[in-house]
């Protein structure tokens, strides 16, 4: 009977540590999710800024005249 009680105590201890670990991991996931959301927002801002920049003065590949050896 004593051995059974010891095993139950061990299991209860392990469960409490697992609950703590799960909560810590959950907090890390939340923090990483926030970080990813901020980074996605920053990337979208950069994309919008790049799209708003006027195209360069260089001609496109289709507008270029072929070199003389063609």
Automatic annotation (TrEMBL):
Entry-linked HAMAP family: SlyX (MF_00715)
Record's protein name: Protein SlyX homolog
UniProt entry keywords in alphabetical sequence: Coiled coil
Pfam families: SlyX (PF04102)
Coiled-coil ranges per UniProt: 1-42
InterPro entries: SlyX (IPR007236)
Family as reported in the entry's similarity comment: Belongs to the SlyX family.
